[in-house]
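Apologies for my clumsy wording, but could you write out the amino acids of a protein and the tokens describing how it folds?
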Amino acid sequence: MSLTATSRYTGVAIALHWLLALMLIASFSVGLYMAELPFSPQRLKLYNWHKWAGVTILTLSFVRLFWRLTHRPPADLPMPAWQARAAHVTHGLLYALFFAVPLVGWAYSSAAGFPIVWFGVLPLPDFVPVDKALAEAIKPWHEYLAWAMASLVLLHIGGALKHQFINRDGLLRRMKPGAA
């Protein structure tokens, strides 16, 4: 199947997709690892890295959403209506979680009294006031939402692989970096 320029995502959309994918996987992995570490300089360093990644993911998510709203994606490939709906719902939920997970993490960090200094240079304002009870209430939600996003990412990957290896409809080429 030969893909035309209009049947592929734009280069910017492709770059944002893969950059965010890598950052989400790295941030989720670091989050899992650091949560199990005892209190140490290494754990503090990883928490800071995780927060920097979260703010960067949030920023890139705004860029990605703006790009998506101002640049029409390629038309859907022919598929059963339920699959098209499932894909659209999954994408919508992923976009919502691109914002919710870092914002809830920022709220937790603020409520716990741990400010975020992006890359150790730019202090960010507290998202909510310092409140230990609020921090304890928010803390599990960051994890729940991160797991929900990880589950949707796996569903998204599974759908893409189904299209690649079962349907053989060229869907993956639409998001492949480089030439068509």
The first helix runs from residue 11 to 35.
